[in-house]
Amino acid sequence: MAHHTQACVRLTNLVFYAHHGVLKEEHTIGGKYEVDAELSFDFTDAAQNDDITKTVDYGAVYRKIREALTLKKYFLIESVAYNIACELLQDFQILDRVSIKVRKRNPPVDGICDYAEADYSLKRA
């Protein structure tokens, strides 16, 4: 009997210091960015057999996100979220869908704002 499985692994609140933003000061001074990655794939096989080879390598995912965030400068956190989602789907064939949230702490608004967040989800075609 076929089961429709919904499963995901989340890496929550990965913190990086990077130089993104529209304002020149942001590129010079840098700022704190947080990323949540929700990785959807069927890990039934991995779970039933307690087999690490049948799941996603968290360390490799973390490195990919760190690279995407720190090796290139972006104006928009929207671009960061989009690029991370695309790269993860491309590099990790096991994934069916990825959802990436990128938060920028204390964004430059004229007032108090904890963070701005861009959320991008991408499903394998």
Helix content: 25-40%
What distance separates the N and C termini? 25 Å
The CATH superfamily name is GTP cyclohydrolase I, C-terminal domain/NADPH-dependent 7-cyano-7-deazaguanine reductase, N-terminal domain
Chain oligomer state: single chain
Tell me the major beta sheet: 4 strands, antiparallel
Rg, Å, rounded: 16 Å
| Strand line-up in the sheet with most strands | 1-2-3-4
Query: Helical element count?
Result: 4
Counting structural domains, the number is: 1
Quick one: overall form?
A: elongated
The ordered string of helix (H) and strand (E) elements is: EHEHHHEE
Describe the structure.
This protein is an alpha+beta fold and 125 residues long. It contains four helices and four strands, in the order E-H-E-H-H-H-E-E. Strands 1-2-3-4 form a four-stranded antiparallel beta sheet. It is elongated and about 50 Å long. The two termini are 25 Å apart.
Give a quick summary of the entry.
The protein is an alpha+beta fold and 125 residues long. 32% of the residues lie in helices and 31% in strands. It is elongated.
Chain-wise SSE layout:
Blueprint: E1 8-18, H1 24-29, E2 31-40, H2 44-49, H3 58-70, H4 77-91, E3 97-105, E4 115-123
Antiparallel strand pairs: 1-2, 2-3, 3-4
Search tags:
4 strands, 32% helix, GTP Cyclohydrolase I, domain 2, 125 residues
